[in-house]
């Protein structure tokens, strides 16, 4: 930003099909391990339910086989299984799963926060809201050698653990293996029978597809007592729990519980509890309504309770839970009364597929296409900026216009649309969306009747296209954040200032769109200022003249304008300093600009506010978040709070598969051309793709400082490395995401070097071992902020250079992204952003809709069924034809979407090989961009060029390619389909 529920069966996870998982931890088991048979037990399910934190006298399973009828309330009583568990085996007939809830039989329910539990077949566990797969009471039978295995999950956050193993020379257990028993905080145990073997091979998992297989090598564990922790096996180990006294101390009761109703939903927030060994979750109990009490398990300090009864009072209490299952006393209760059900409830569902398959088209919604002139607004800078003279209000494009032109984007071949922030903004020039004021409200200047944000999401999904929402966790507008804190400033409505300070109108609420009748303004500010000093004011020298003058010569007063150093903002919620060093610690703890009030993101109240807000948009079905100013929030806070909250919410609302593929990519702005940002690891993009590697203070603010200092001392030479983006010879290997944070990033180094494609390629390649998985990097040439080498202008390197850049982006690792209009070199050479000092029409953020006038219909991705008017001319431009075919080719060759790559044995400047292997898919491609290349040591076979259709039969492991010309490509695919698409101005 510029500074102005899918069912999970107990199936083996093939190494070749490893993917990012729910917790961002997945490492698939080894190929041998993955060959174990399916554990599903046909048409029966044995459901294990954890009793540790419920304190119920009896437990009932109330269920319905898929497609069948529910049992009679309260269901069937469950029987004791082993310590901490009850169970029940049910006959499902021909169904392959069931819906389930649990109850004590006396009116208290665990119904998965109103969504019920979607369970499969075989052995299934339900513990603290988490569904997993194994028998938690299983123990091996037989005589012979034994191995006692202790396994640590202290750094993993698993709520259950299994060991999948085979004795040396023997057979693997059925996936997911057998359950480990919790024995003390952070440790699990199981005694295994090895028969005559003296060792075993093992991998561990959480029962939901999240694996620790020692980076693909599996663990070799000897007979006797062993401990496995942090990828290290310790043989002849002491009992790690021997000196650890049983944890009997309960956490403190949650405090600060607040409940806020919104229609038939309630958002509940509270302050974190403390515990001697650490809080692992919370238990929320709801009373009220006609459906009985409901207990919900929550992993964060925010809970959104939806689908409630209208006009009904609900009361909530919260209890904290630690790893030993100790429950805190209940919090003081909080009550909220629901209103009426909205007429158009949010109902979206994310597409939930691998984000690497989807090239991204990035739009500034307010500048793309105007579908509804009634919501256009110019704001206070309409005249001064020169926009009025051009009849070009800053808020011009909208969701209706974007819905109308989704077919244009699809015709280009893009299947994901990144849109600028949608929350209600409030500043003098806020069309871009980065000055959020009410994070819980969609900006009405973007919506229209029949074209709400939900309508946009649903319309995109209907076309097979994803919506990535730009989000801001770091800051609010200068006027604060509604519902968290909004400052009051000094204002005197005298002869000098009455033009600026609007008369206060009780009952009028700013929404950016509605015109306040008396002032005639949609940007009304009468609620923001006061001449009288407000009670509890902390702003220094309230209303005292500063001695300075405005440009008009008017008297300036203290507390007239929001500022971090005036005392106007509470320290607990907002930072109180200006940035001095962009590569220093203060870059996370100070204001970036006067329009960006910097949240204290280490404060639980702030965390609750933004988590609760973005839960709303997750519920609407967005497919991912582009995270603005991610570098200005400590990695510890992302890893502890915000990223787990996103994953938890997506999984809770849309299922584990959707959570695995919910795409979070952050802006970690580093405007340098080296691998690490001026030597500061904390300010480098790749740093944010990793989990923490040591434990820090439980206090988030202290932990941020501890992490910053520790990692700076480690320096660039002692950071983790990864081979996830690289082939092993010619072979694809299962990526190791066990230390992945769950955040991916914009590839700032390639972006900075795209003045020349070769520079971008070699710089990107040089950095790839420092990302957890560079195949997820978002790659673009220019954006709404900068062009290559921190240019303030839209890319102006020429059409041939644009074509070459695109050819590289669409075939090299990463996800290609195009800023709106670049397909016709829109506004090339124009200054991208000059704020209100010049008309938007003269900048890189100009209105694009004039080029989209007319009608367009896409019959598929990269396919135009019909087009008329100006948009038909737009679609004939050379770079449009180029990107259409690039998208066709990339979509047809899996190696170009998700493949690892290598340049070993290859001569040529921008030449590489890529491979992706998963299940029945094995895609291998040889690529050269612009120049000649020779590939040696490649598999023999038949290769077909996707550009020309040329066919080569290779018998000696060598293939040579002549230079295709600047911007052109050769993509030889092993056993490929041949020519894809038709020749164009560059691909021929």
UniProtKB/TrEMBL annotation:
Outline the extent of the Fibronectin type-III domain. Answer: 250-343
Keyword terms of this UniProt record: Carbohydrate metabolism, Glycosidase, Hydrolase, Metal-binding, Polysaccharide degradation, Signal
**Taxonomy, superkingdom:** Bacteria
The residues the entry assigns to the signal sequence are 1-35
Using the UniProt annotation, give all residue ranges assigned to the region (Disordered). 325-356, 371-392
List the SUPFAM superfamilies: (Trans)glycosidases (SSF51445), Fibronectin type III (SSF49265)
Q: Which residues form a coiled coil?
A: none
Q: Per its Swiss-Prot or TrEMBL entry, what cofactor is needed? A: Ca(2+)
Cite the record's Low complexity compositional bias ranges. Answer: 328-350
Q: What is the protein's given name? A: Carbohydrate binding domain-containing protein
In which organism is this protein found?
Answer: Streptomyces cellulosae
Traced from the root, the source organism's taxonomic lineage reads: Bacteria, Bacillati, Actinomycetota, Actinomycetes, Kitasatosporales
């Amino acid at each position: 930003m510029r500074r102005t529920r899918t069912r999970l069966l107990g199936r083996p996870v093939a190494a070749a099909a490893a993917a990012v998982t729910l917790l961002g931890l997945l490492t698939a088991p080894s190929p041998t391990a993955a060959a174990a048979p399916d554990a599903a037990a046909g048409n029966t399910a044995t459901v294990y339910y954890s009793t540790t934190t419920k304190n119920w006298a009896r437990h009932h399973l109330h269920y319905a086989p898929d497609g069948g009828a529910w049992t009679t309330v309260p269901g069937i009583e469950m029987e004791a299984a082993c310590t901490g568990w009850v169970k029940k085996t049910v006959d499902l007939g021909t169904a392959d799963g069931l819906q389930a809830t649990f109850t004590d039989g006396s009116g208290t329910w665990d119904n998965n926060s109103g969504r019920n539990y979607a369970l499969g077949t075989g052995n299934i566990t339900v513990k603290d809201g988490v569904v997993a797969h194994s028998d938690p009471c299983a123990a091996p039978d037989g005589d012979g050698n034994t191995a006692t295995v202790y396994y640590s999950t202290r750094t993993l956050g698993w709520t259950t653990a299994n060991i999948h193993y085979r004795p040396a020379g023997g057979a693997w257990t059925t996936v997911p293996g057998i359950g480990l028993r919790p024995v003390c905080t952070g440790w699990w145990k199981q005694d295994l029978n090895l028969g005559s073997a003296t060792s075993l091979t093992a991998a561990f998992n959480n029962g939901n597809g999240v694996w620790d297989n020692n980076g693909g090598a599996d663990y070799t564990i000897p007979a006797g007592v062993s401990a496995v922790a942090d990828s290290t096996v310790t043989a002849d180990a002491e009992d790690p729990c021997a000196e650890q006294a049983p944890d009997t101390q309960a956490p403190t009761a949650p405090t600060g519980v607040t409940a806020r109703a919104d229609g038939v939903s309630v958002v509940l927030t509270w302050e974190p509890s403390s515990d001697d060994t650490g809080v692992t979750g919370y238990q929320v109990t709801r009373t009220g309504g006609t459906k009985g009490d409901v207990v919900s398990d929550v992993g964060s300090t925010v809970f959104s309770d939806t689908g409630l009864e209208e006009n009904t009072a609900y009361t909530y209490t919260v209890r904290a839970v630690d790893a030993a299952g100790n429950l805190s006393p209940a919090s003081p209760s909080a009550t909220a009364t629901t209103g009426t059900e909205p007429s158009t409830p949010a109902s979206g569902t994310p597409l939930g597929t691998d984000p690497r398959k989807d090239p991204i088209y990035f739009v500034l919604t307010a500048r793309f296409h105007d579908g509804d002139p009634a919501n256009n607004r110019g704001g206070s800078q309409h005249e001064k900026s020169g926009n009025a003279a051009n009849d070009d209000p800053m808020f011009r494009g909208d969701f209706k216009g974007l819905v109308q032109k989704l077919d244009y984007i699809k015709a280009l071949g893009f299947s994901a649309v990144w849109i600028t922030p949608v929350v209600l903004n409030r500043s003098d020039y806020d069309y871009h969306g980065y000055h959020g004021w009410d994070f819980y409200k969609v900006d009405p200047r973007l919506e229209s009747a029949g074209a709400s944000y939900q309508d946009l999401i649903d319309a995109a999904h209907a076309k097979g296209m994803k919506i990535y929402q730009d989000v801001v966790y770091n800051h609010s507008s200068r006027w604060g954040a509604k519902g968290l804190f909004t400052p009051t400033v000094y204002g005197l409505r005298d002869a000098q200032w009455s033009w600026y300070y609007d008369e206060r109108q009780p009952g009028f609420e700013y929404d950016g769109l509605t015109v306040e009748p008396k002032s005639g303004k949609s940007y009304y500010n009468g609620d923001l200022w006061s001449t009288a000093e407000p009670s509890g004011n902390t702003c220094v020298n309230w209303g005292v003249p500063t001695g300075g003058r405005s440009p008009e010569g008017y008297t300036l007063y203290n507390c007239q304008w929001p500022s971090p150093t005036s005392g106007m903002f509470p320290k607990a919620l907002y930072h109180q300093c200006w940035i001095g060093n962009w590569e220093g610690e203060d870059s996370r703890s100070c204001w970036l600009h006067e329009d960006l009030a910097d949240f204290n993101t280490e404060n639980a109240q702030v965390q609750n506010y933004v988590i609760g807000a973005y839960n709303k948009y997750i519920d609407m079905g967005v497919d991912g978040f582009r995270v603005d100013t991610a570098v200005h929030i400590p990695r510890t806070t992302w890893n502890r709070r915000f990223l787990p909250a996103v994953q938890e919410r997506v999984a809770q609302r849309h299922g584990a598969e959707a959570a695995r593929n919910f795409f979070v990519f952050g802006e970690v702005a580093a405007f340098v051309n080296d691998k690490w940002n001026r030597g500061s690891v904390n300010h480098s993009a790749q740093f944010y793709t990793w989990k923490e590697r040591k434990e820090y203070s439980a206090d988030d603010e202290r932990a941020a400082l501890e992490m910053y200092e520790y990692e700076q001392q480690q320096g660039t030479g002692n950071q983790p490395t990864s081979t996830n983006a690289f082939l092993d010879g010619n072979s694809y290997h299962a990526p190791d995401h066990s230390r992945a944070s769950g955040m991916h990033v914009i590839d700032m180094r390639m972006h900075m070097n795209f003045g020349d494609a070769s520079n971008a390629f070699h710089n990107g390649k040089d950095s790839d071992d420092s990302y957890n998985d560079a195949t997820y990097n978002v790659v673009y040439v220019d954006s709404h902020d900068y062009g290559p080498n921190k240019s303030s202008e839209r890319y102006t390197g020429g059409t041939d250079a644009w074509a070459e850049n695109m050819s590289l982006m669409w075939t090299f690792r990463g996800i290609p992204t195009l800023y709106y209009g670049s397909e016709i070199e829109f506004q090339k050479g124009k200054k991208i952003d000059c704020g209100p000092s010049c008309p938007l029409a003269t900048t890189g953020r100009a209105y694009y809709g004039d080029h989209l006038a007319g009608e367009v219909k896409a019959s598929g991705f990269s396919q135009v069924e019909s087009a008329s008017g100006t948009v038909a001319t737009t679609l004939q431009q050379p770079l449009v034809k180029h990107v259409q075919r690039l998208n066709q080719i990339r979509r047809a060759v899996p190696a170009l979407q998700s493949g690892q790559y290598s340049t070993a044995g290859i001569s040529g400047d921008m030449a590489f090989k890529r491979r992706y292997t998963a299940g029945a898919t094995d895609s291998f491609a040889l690529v050269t961009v612009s120049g000649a290349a020779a590939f040696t040591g490649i598999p023999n076979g038949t290769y077909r060029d996707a550009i020309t259709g040329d066919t080569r039969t290779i018998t000696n492991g060598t293939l040579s390619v002549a230079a295709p010309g600047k911007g052109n490509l050769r993509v030889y695919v092993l056993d490929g389909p041949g020519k894809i698409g038709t020749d164009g101005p560059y691909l021929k």
